[in-house]
Structures are given as structure tokens and as C-alpha cells.
Amino acid sequence: MFSERIALIAGGGALPLEILGRLQGKIAVVYSLNEGLSSGESVPETTEVIKMVSPDLEWLLRDLERRNIRKLLMAGYVPKKLMYMPEALDPALRAVIGKLASRDDHSLLGAIVAAIESHGVEVMPYRDVILDILAPVGVIAGRNPTEEEKDDIAWGVEIIRRLLPLSFGQTIVVKSRSVVAVEAMEGTDRTIERAGTLVKGGVVIKMMRPDQDERYDLPTIGPTTLEAMAKGGLSCLAVEAGRTIILEKEKTFDIAEKSGIAVWGIG
Hints:
CATH superfamily of the largest domain: LpxI C-terminal catalytic domain
Largest sheet: 6 strands, mixed
Order of helices and strands: EHEEHEHHEEHEEHEEHEEHE
Number of helices: 8
Oligomer: single chain
């Protein structure tokens, strides 16, 4: 699958480094939008890192062609607010965004991937590389959910399944069958922080829309997720089994254990 030279577009977060570590010597170049990722201890000597201040689709496609690279991975978080900053985007990317009838995450990422693949570059899935850090079904870390928390999970899942086709609400916070907070552009951790100012003991539920492209857009949780929950006094995290990445598992599980947070995999 990864027998040819491949490139990686690295957004923010720990996922790009996780993938780099698992594909030692197979990634020829990293186009990094991640401030914490640079050549050094975390990146193999055989991998070149090119820092990008902002996405530049036209330059990227030219550089891939120059290097004769026809396979690409995309991983990590890129702030969606960039689409409201046309001065930070190159003409090719502005043109892609300008043609969209809807600028939700699903449409936006799909259009960018389509533009890349129209130039003969295959966007490849990273899922098979990180199977061991995908959430399992049932108890993942910490304690078992209480009966009240399980009831809120079941109720919240029905709510979130109605929101996901609209391309927002990937994370919601529920307390006593009431929706406390819904994720929009701010991201999971900020949604959790906001919910913590409103309730204590709420349940955080995170899922992905059924047709979300698993090649490049799997949801993630990690230490910052659990830290935000512990700080806000939220008691339970439920994520979609097999479709959620758990980053820095040991640290994440340790925070769950020490904070008494139940982490549950939705089957």
C-alpha cells in the first residue's frame, strides 16, 4: 500500500507525528502547517519537512509533480477560519472554495481532495496504519458509565445522528437528557470548556457523519480532551468505536483514571 514515495500534509495536533513514526522511511516529504513539527528528533532523517505558513494548493501540486510523488496523506487539524481569510489562501484554493454552494467541513474537504486528485495525486487512507489506537466498543478508560450517563449517551446519540448530516455537531454535551453545548467551528475542546461553565457532570458524545471520508477525516481525542473535561467537571466521554482515534493513549487513560472520567466506545 505504501510501497511508493508518499507525501504528508500535516495539520495541527499529534496525529501527523503518530503517522510519521509508523511509516518510518516511507514518507519522502512533509508539508507542515503544524508549528510543532519540524526536522529533528521527531522526524526521520529521510523525510524532508517544508513549513507552510498557510495552505497553498497551486504550489503544493507543482512541488508534488516536480518530485514525481503521486500519493498523499492528509492528517491533523487545519483551522476552518482560514476560509474566511482569502488573503491567506492562494488563487487555486480560493477558486475551489468560491465554487462551493455550502462551506461545511464535509463539502470543503471533499472539494480540496477532488482538486488534488484531479491532478493525478491519490489521497490515501491512514486508517490501516493506526488500527491499534482506534476506540474499541465498551469501556475504554476510567470507570464504567453510571446508568444515568448511559441513558444520556443513548439519548445524545439520537440527537447527534440528526445533526451530523448537516455537517455540524460532531461533539455535543448532554446532561439529564438536555443538550448543553453543540460543537460548531470552535472544535471539541472549546465546546467542552463552554459546557463546563454551564453544568457539572455532563456527558460528552463525539461521533462522525456516516458518509465522512475515513481517508483523511477521522475524529480524534487525546489528553487535551480529557484535561478540558476534568477542568470543566464533565464526567463521561462517549466516542464512536472503530471511527475515533485515541492519541497518546497512556496519558489519556491516566487522566481518565485520576479524574474519575468514564470513557466509553459506542458500538
